[in-house]
Amino acid sequence: MIENIREPKQKRAIEKKKKIIKAGFDLICKNGYHNTNTAEIAKEAGVSTGIVYQYFKDKYDILIEGLEKYGENIFFPVLDNKNIKLDKSSFEKLLRDIINHYISNYKISNIAYEELMSMVYSDKKVAEYYCKREIETTEFFKTILISNGFDKENLVEKVHIMIGLINNLCYEVIYHKHKNMNYCIMTNLVITNIKNLFKKDLD
Amino acid sequence: MIENIREPKQKRAIEKKKKIIKAGFDLICKNGYHNTNTAEIAKEAGVSTGIVYQYFKDKYDILIEGLEKYGENIFFPVLDNKNIKLDKSSFEKLLRDIINHYISNYKISNIAYEELMSMVYSDKKVAEYYCKREIETTEFFKTILISNGFDKENLVEKVHIMIGLINNLCYEVIYHKHKNMNYCIMTNLVITNIKNLFKKDLD
Amino acid sequence: MIENIREPKQKRAIEKKKKIIKAGFDLICKNGYHNTNTAEIAKEAGVSTGIVYQYFKDKYDILIEGLEKYGENIFFPVLDNKNIKLDKSSFEKLLRDIINHYISNYKISNIAYEELMSMVYSDKKVAEYYCKREIETTEFFKTILISNGFDKENLVEKVHIMIGLINNLCYEVIYHKHKNMNYCIMTNLVITNIKNLFKKDLD
Amino acid sequence: MIENIREPKQKRAIEKKKKIIKAGFDLICKNGYHNTNTAEIAKEAGVSTGIVYQYFKDKYDILIEGLEKYGENIFFPVLDNKNIKLDKSSFEKLLRDIINHYISNYKISNIAYEELMSMVYSDKKVAEYYCKREIETTEFFKTILISNGFDKENLVEKVHIMIGLINNLCYEVIYHKHKNMNYCIMTNLVITNIKNLFKKDLD
DNA sequence: TATGAATGAGTCTTCATTCAT
DNA sequence: AATGAATGAAGACTCATTCAT
Fold first, then answer.
1. Secondary element (H or E) of residue D141
2. What residues of chain B, 3 to 22, have a C-beta less than 8 Å from chain C?
3. pLDDT attached to residue B3
4. Distance of C1' in E7 from CA in B69, Å
5. Better-predicted residue by pLDDT, B6 or A101
6. What angle do CA C159, C161, C163 make, to 5 degrees?
7. What tens digit of pLDDT does each residue of B86-104 get?
8. Does the pLDDT at position C81 exceed 90?
9. Residue A91 has pLDDT above 50, yes or no
10. Looking at the complex, does the CB of residue C193 fall below 8 Å from at least one CB of chain D?
């Protein structure tokens, strides 16, 4: 078989491809991969069903491209580098900012988050993407902490734990699956916990 | 409409129903819900497709019954109550036991775990089941800790964080998605972390 | 193949067969032949599914036996012979009695009537039964009229037309599919019409 | 949910849709709704099963569209307006023309007629269609009669009875379920009967 | 006689993908 | 480059009937 997938060169064609990615990714995030069919995607994108298969190998391909393009906002929301100012006294402030940032991002895209998390556990490429984002995030925090004089020893492990704690917390706050939990207290506990991880660096 | 679902009364029939649940749940856990069809389930269980629909409303129903029956081994593996001995000096030992127990259980059923976690994020009833198990586990630890004199204040929140930490750790150990991580160190960090949570109780 | 259908001899067995006929016929009349399954029939009759096939060749057989047993009340409701008194002056009264009798019978079993009429047009045996009832009814009226001195000439044809007129009228009255029709006038017209048929006999 | 039914735009596609309606309606009329499956319809129409569901919601939809398209020839066959000339002396001639027209039409489509009549009694939409046709026919005759100076009083009722008489007669002639009936005499009786209905107008 | 468990062919419907224009 | 028509395999579910006990 010849490789039939075309990379659009013309401006209008590029726009079209983008529209398909957006429409497909949005629908999948909203209704799930299995509940979204290509006809819907084409309709939502305002194109014919046939054209979809000139730009994408298959339905799955749309998801993956969509993920690459929009996934950043959904898994481990990126922080604005410039706003991060960190010294020992402002560490707690930073943590609270991160938590708030995550929560407000998750709130916006919580349906997408659930649908994609589902695929993290069932699809290899989505899992890889999630992992990549996690590593990027880890690296990001590592860099910041190192440049602020934190000890490099076991830093990856500490950051990983930190991210896990934050993620768990935020997920709980957004979906509050457990009725009898006080999120204010939980947040404080998590922050204390993280500060304990970096005790040496903060003293 | 008539209620078509029959509860088998004969011994052999009850066995057959169990076989269907087992076959269905196993296949779903192995290949995913969408990649498992009723014909396969029937074949694997050694029955006809028709009988499946006499004992179950639909394919989904098989999953849910399977989950109720076998889910305990997959989400938050249950600990043998009798082996738990806890005083302040043995707290760390307990944590290590839990972690090892979780890891060895997850190792056995890691494919099932991933497939079901996928549904935790996409299916309401599976999500509810997961949540139920989480609450049961939380209650279990709460009870133990209280009966050993731990302070009740914020105990739910602390245990929840503890479980989150353990889960994250074990997941990472099993799947080690991140190459450059030292699990021994991570384990120690997590244990220290948890001990810090209960600092007051352990002094 | 051996003929497996058993004619029940024991009293209890005969009762059972009757129950199946009643349950089956009732359900078919209520929900239609295709929307009634044997499991329902068995359940409604309070017997097992297996036993059904010892008394009946198949589902269809139940319908036919039911029809033989209960059809009289549904197609061309039978008149009480003894109450019929007819002389020339009371002919109109008789017609009105018949019409009222038909209407009150159809009212009771109108759902059954529709379901069975449906089968009159699609099933050979039901059609035959309907036809048989029509002939019986024709004969019944013929006999009465003859014994009251009506002319035998073309009597079958006249009675057939009469029955058609009455049936149409009653059907319309029960279901009144047409909004703008005055049934009182229609009834009078039909009666006049029938009296015209037998003009010679009534003068 | 997206609206999945497509209205074909290309010429060939429109043809195909028509073919499906024709094939489906013909098969249903021949074998009955329940004895016709979509695969057969598709095969008869020379298309794939998939395309059927792009043009029709379901099998039932095919029937209804077929009915709208071809039902006129089956229930209450339409008369050619231009050929109808009516004055008092030609009334009987008109009646005989109608009867002959009905009989020759019914002869052609008698199997269809029976299958559809079956549905008139079991299916709501088919019943509605039948009723609509009956009303249209009533209106048609009303208009003609009025324009020829017939009295408007009770005209709907009279025409309804007339149509019933004709229908009954023609049905009997086609299917002659009763062996010992003289159709020539019956026809004459029916015509006399109808003329009696409009006695005032014809004098 | 009786039960109810078991069968499996049959049906409608969906949808990713390809094709003709 | 684009359309939308067409494909057909696959899947969930039903139910009349038979079988084992």
1. helix D124-147
2. 4
3. 60
4. 27
5. A101
6. 70
7. 777 889 999 999 999 999 9
8. no
9. yes
10. yes
Instruction: Give the separation between CA D62 and CA D48, rounded to whole angstroms.
Output: 15
- Are D97 and D10 spatial neighbours (Cβ–Cβ below 8 Å)? no
Q: How far apart are CA D178 and CA D198, in angstroms?
A: 29
The helices-and-strands tally (H runs, E runs) of chain A is 10, 0
* Tokens 């998390």, located at residue: A117
Cβ of residue A51 closer than 8 Å to a chain B Cβ: no
Burial of B193 (0-12, 13-18, 19+ CB in 10 A): buried
> Within 13 Å, how many C-alpha atoms sit on residue C4's CB side?
9
CB count within 10 Å of CB A184 equals 9
User: Is the distance from CB of B20 to CB of B45 less than 8 angstroms?
Assistant: yes
**Structural domains of chain D, ranges and CATH numbers in brackets:** 11-70 (1.10.10.60), 72-202 (1.10.357)
Query: Count of H helices and E strands in chain D?
Result: 10, 0
Averages of pLDDT over runs of 10 residues in chain D (203 residues) are: 70 92 96 95 96 95 96 90 76 93 92 95 95 94 91 95 96 85 94 94 86
Q: What is the DSSP string of B38-60?
A: HHHHHHHHTS-HHHHHHH-SSHH
Nearest to B111 by CA among B29, B186, B33: B29
Q: Which residue has the tokens 């010992």?
A: D180
Q: Which chains touch D (3 or more CB pairs under 8 A)?
A: A, C
Q: What is the pLDDT of residues A151-187, one digit of tens each?
A: 999 999 999 999 999 999 999 999 888 888 899 999 9
- What whole-number distance in Å separates Cα of residue C177 and Cα of residue D134? 10
What would the mean pLDDT of B75-82 be, rounded to a whole number?
84
C-alpha to C-alpha distances, B39 to B30, B43, B49, C45, C91, nearest whole angstrom: 16, 6, 6, 33, 69
Packing angle, helices C59-70 and C124-147, rounded to 10: 10
- Could you say which of A118, A157, A165 has the minimum Cβ distance to residue B164? A165
> For residues B63 and B123, what is the distance between their CA atoms, to the nearest angstrom?
11
Task: For residue C72, give every residue at least 6 positions away whose Cβ sits within 8 Å of its Cβ, in sequence order, or none.
Answer: C78, C133
Q: Which residue has the higher pLDDT, D85 or B42?
A: B42
